[in-house]
Amino acid sequence: MKFFSKFRSGFVRLFLGAAYCMPLGSSIAIAQSPTNIFDPAATPARSIFDLSMLVLAVTLAIFLIVSGLLLYALIRFRHRPEDAQHEPPQIYGSNQIELSWTVIPVLIVVMLFLTTARVILGTQAIPKPKDALNVTVIAHQFWWEYRYPKLGIVTANELHIPVSSSADANPTYLNMSSADVDHSFWVPRLAGKTDVIPNRVNTMWIDPKVPGLYLGQCAQYCGMQHAKMLIRVYVQSPADFAAWVNQQKQPARQDFAADPEAAEGQAVFMHSACINCHAIAGTAATGRFGPDLTHMASRDTLCSGAIENTPQNLRQWIDDPNSLKPGSLMPAMHLNNHDLDAVTAYLTQLR
Amino acid sequence: MMRDADAIAIDETLDPSETPWTLPYRGTVGMACLIVAESAIFIIFVVAYIFYIGKSLTGPTPAQVLELPIFGTVCLLSSSITVHYAVAALRKGKLRACTVWLAGTVLLGSLFLASTAREWYHLIHDEGLTIQTNLFGTTYYSLVGLHATHVVVGLIMLALVLGFSLFGLVREEHAEKLETLSLYWHFVDAVWVVVFTVVYVLGR
Amino acid sequence: MSTTQVVEGIDGTLTAQKGSPPRNVIYEWLTTVDHKKIGIMYIAYALIFLLVAGVEAMVMRIQLAVPNNHFVSPQVFNQLFTMHGTTMVFFVGMPILFGFGNYLVPLMIGARDMAFPRLNAFSFWVSAFAGLMLYFSYVGASGLYAAGSAPDVGWFAYAPLTAKVFSPGHSTDYWTLAVFLSGIGSIGTALNIVTTIICMRCKGMKMYRMPLLVWLYLVMASLVFVTVSPLTAAQVMLTFDRYLGSHFFDTQAGGSAVLWMHFFWIFGHPEVYVLVLPAFAFVNEIIPVFSRKAIFGYPAMVAASVGIGFISLSVWAHHMFTVGLGAAANTFFVFATMVISVPTGIKIFNWLATIWGGKVIFATPMIFCIGFLFQFLVAGLTGIMLAAAPFDWQLGNSYFVVAHFHYVLVGAILFALFAAFYYWYPKITGRMMSETLGKWHFWIFMIGFHLTFDFMHIPGLLGMPRRIYTYEANRGWGEWNLIVSIGAVVQAIGLLIFVYNMVHSYFRGKVAGHDPWDAWTLEWATSSPPPDYNFAILPTVKSRRPLWDLKHPEDPDSDYE
Fold it and tell me: Average of pLDDT values for C72-95?
């Protein structure tokens, strides 16, 4: 028993040592992730990061002290065979000790609470600047609709916003609601998540500091394809953003004199059920149930970030959505091969 | 089965300075627990009712269709008094009086149910308000209906006891059990006070 | 076929009686109202479902081990996580804890049975039926191949995903009805436990002399009344919505999805305290015995337990920090959640102080308690991280939360349950479990547990949300998920060793005698297993540790209380 106790305590020390070293080893690999919450790129994510460092430091200190004491007690006060004759002194309690380990935690709690309250107010309760960019986000099963009311733009799945440097603040405000069930908008490097709920409008804001592509995904289980409801936020320089806006404002390309297959595809599209769900600006298609396709060829991905936007993928998607995203709400269109090729040719022209 | 020859024998003598060992009656404690659980259920329905006041998108509003159910309320609250007297009578061994008070309780409870039924008939057929109509309909029927279901259960139990007592099977030693049942009945009445206040007074 | 056996009467006389053929044994167990048999049935039932839900977890972990995996379809995966959660909470956690409570509470208070034996049996059979109904859903509708109508709405079944329009068919109804019936059973047993504790204590056992296990079961059972009922109410509302056309959670008619969340979490948060309080109960009994010291600070432990019970009712919306309730509401719930760490911390310190100055024996029940202490500490600290609402805006609904709550459910509660098994198995069966196998069980399970649940925090920190059937390769989550999945296999091995230990020890374990651990509470004063009537003569007690007083007449506890 004695030997076993010694062995055990040594093993436990090794074990704990390995546990403490883990963060060191992990941090290198962690930095590679595009959705790392400890790699903030906007103010909301940054203030959360700062708070989290404090909380981690406090909890780590508590862990080291308490687990250290526990480990010490287990080793120092272990049962030794030569001492088995009588029971140890029975201590029933101590008012002073118990008071101190009530008061100290209360003080820690008060400190943590006040720090946390400050961050909550700093994120949720600050007034909106007058010239902020407003984007209406409508979550669907299983895609994201983005509308820019003041700019007259409607798009889907890929959110373009201007960069917001410290010199030239340009925050984007998202007004979010759902068309069906609960969803949640989460782009970890930009901000914490905010739930998107039907019959309710939630707001959040982001001010990314560096241009680039930021990834995220839906964070509230919303049905079969919750896992593939991905988010792509394109943060662009003011010039690039202006160019994108201009392009998106144009109505859809309708002149396909040079491309007969695309012209035929346009005809097939406008005479099929497609127009019941999808909208293409400037045409007879005004459906709002599915994503707006006016400039769909300008997007990098299809199916809410799930697959690359290539003609083959697009063709397969139109032919049988369930083969790429089973449970998505788009029905198989049952077009023959010829029509399928034509519609694909048409849609790939809608930049 | 082995007999433990060295099983520890516990000292049976109580310290003479300590008072006699009496603990509460199981039925009362058990019923109190049930009442707490049922109260929690009712509170949730009341919260839903209050939350949705004024939020219906269509349809009749409480002010348009609800009238104070005075008669039913008086019947139900009086039935609490009659059941109290039934228990008191049984405690004193007055079996016939107990039967009469029980019959009164069952009658008054049934009158309450009848008045609720009449009110619902009027709401459904004349005002077109059903559980599907709007949020008011949803919360009204479910809350009042949940209460009515509890009244039905209570009435069945009381009617059973009334039946037993008519056959002379209820005796003085059953007084504690009848009191347990009466606690449930008082609870049902107390819930009605809350429902009445929330639905017919505050909500209109 | 019959055998003769010796039966002990209530007055100690022995008589020879004709034994029972097997068919009578089954009838006896089916119709029993004895708290000990019902307790054993609850525990056996829960263990079976533990294995089933464990298999569901294994399948999920295989699917998630690598990115873009195709081991199961999205449909099946969504059913798996729903069934795994629902089973573990309602058909493993609740029954196993009620089982131990049923068995131990009457013995520890010197009573012969629970207050309402028939209600006890009824509650068990209703809960048992509910579990079978939930699993019938796998074969309902299209049968096992297409995984039938098993619920796929998540164990918290958020509205309006559960509305008829978004969940046609009966998957939601199986969830609703099974959980509803389980709730009826839970309320019944809780009522029994409270009434038993208040009305059936033996002479001299005032409330302040009850074992801490009994106090904790009193708080837990009282909490059940106000915890399970809101869920029952919400499920009635959901069923009305689905079948009577009402609009409780119908957002198209002005209803509120957030209202379901409030109702569910008003149940859901106190429910986790319902699950953890009995774990504290076991640890409160085992640590003193294996430290050879009385529990440090009994009054503070009682106060902290009652305090935890009350405060737990006020913290529910920390599950809703991301719903947009507003800064004021969020701030309040941050405060309430952080406050609950104070009485919880007090308990940990009191356990530490009990060990301090004692003589710690590292028997299997004790090492599981030690695992509990370290892991519950970590779980509590990750809980504090989640309590800081802005931090929760990142961590909520991610694998960080999954890691946190499994740390509590497995690392704390399951470890405390293992301790309870090894500690009370001798009392229940009359035989000791194997210490060697116990230590193998402990270490293997420990390694698997840490591989899975320590590393599971990392994908959460890297942005991986919950309830996704697969994930992109470019997120950097793949390697961590692989480690997590490997740990699951290791845990399964540990669990199998435990099951083998239990079965093997039943036939070959050393005979235990009435008090193998030299313990101090009343259940150790009767034989192992106890006779049907528990005690030949109901005891009278004068202190918190009646057997300590008898073994140490020169220094009884009653001098110090």
Answer: 96
Nearest to C410 by CA among C370, C460, C455, C446: C446
Q: Could you tell me the two tokens for B188?
A: 């049902």
ipTM above 0.90, yes or no: yes
Q: How far apart are CA B37 and CA C117, in angstroms?
A: 20
C164 or A3: which leads in pLDDT: C164
Instruction: Kindly state the tokens that stand for C122.
Output: 């009824």
Count CA atoms closer than 13 A to C490's CA, side-chain side.
Answer: 19
Q: What residues in C contact A56, CB-CB < 8 Å?
A: 385
Please state the rounded mean pLDDT for residues C344-359: 96
**Domain parsing of chain B, residue ranges:** 68-202
CA distance B15 to A236: 85
Asked if C475 lies within 8 A of A33 by C-beta distance, the reply is yes
Residue C532: closest CA among chain B residues belongs to which residue? B1
Return the percent helix, strand and coil in chain C, to nearest 5. 70, 5, 30
- Nearest Cα of chain B lies from the Cα of C427 at a distance, in angstroms, of 13
pLDDT (0 to 100) of residue C560: 80
Among C185, C188, C45, smallest CA distance to C115 is for C188
Burial class (CB in 10 A: 0-12, 13-18, 19+), C377: buried
Q: Is the confidence at residue A254, as pLDDT, over 50?
A: yes
Q: What is the pLDDT averaged over residues C393-420? A: 97
Note whether C230 contacts B: Cβ–Cβ < 8 A. Answer: yes
**Domains of chain C with bracketed CATH:** 34-559 (1.20.210.10)
Domains of chain A: 2-80+93-124 (1.10.287.90), 133-249 (2.60.40.420), 260-347 (2.60.40.420)
- pLDDT at residue A145, rounded to an integer: 97
Cα distances (Å, whole numbers) of residue A47 to A44, A132, C141: 5, 20, 50
Q: Does C447 touch chain A (CB under 8 A)?
A: no
- Rounded CA-CA distance C530/C527 in Å is 5
Position C561 scores a pLDDT of: 73
Instruction: Write the pLDDT tens digit of every residue in A42-76.
Output: 999 999 999 999 999 999 999 999 999 999 999 99
Chains that touch A (3 or more CB pairs under 8 A): C
> What type of residue sits at position A134?
N
| Whether the predicted pLDDT of A7 surpasses 70 | no
* The dihedral formed by the CA atoms of C147, C151, C153 and C157, expressed in degrees to the nearest 10: -170
Burial class (CB in 10 A: 0-12, 13-18, 19+), A107: exposed
Distance CA C158, CA C238 (A): 10
Give the closest residue to A226 by CA, choosing from C153, B177, C529: C153
How far is the C-alpha of B132 from the C-alpha of C163, rounded, in Å? 14
Strand-pair partners of A174: A135, A204
Q: How far is A162 from chain C (nearest CA, A)?
A: 23
Supply the mean pLDDT for chain A: 89
What pLDDT is stored for residue A4 in this prediction?
37
What is the second-level CATH architecture of the domain B68-202? Up-down Bundle (1.20)
User: How confident is the model at residue A81, as a pLDDT?
Assistant: 86
Percentage of chain A lying above the pLDDT 70 cut: 91
pLDDT of residue B199: 96
- Sites in chain B below the pLDDT cut of 50: 1-9
Residue C173, SS3? helix
Helix locations, A164-279, DSSP H: 238-249, 260-270, 274-277
Give me the residues paired with residue A218 across strands: A185
Q: What DSSP line would sit under B148-189, residue for residue? A: HHHHHHHHHHHHHHHHHHHTT---GGGHHHHHHHHHHHHHHH
- Whether C contacts B, i.e. 3 or more CB pairs less than 8 A apart, is yes
Q: d(Cα A216, Cα A139) in Å, to the nearest integer?
A: 14
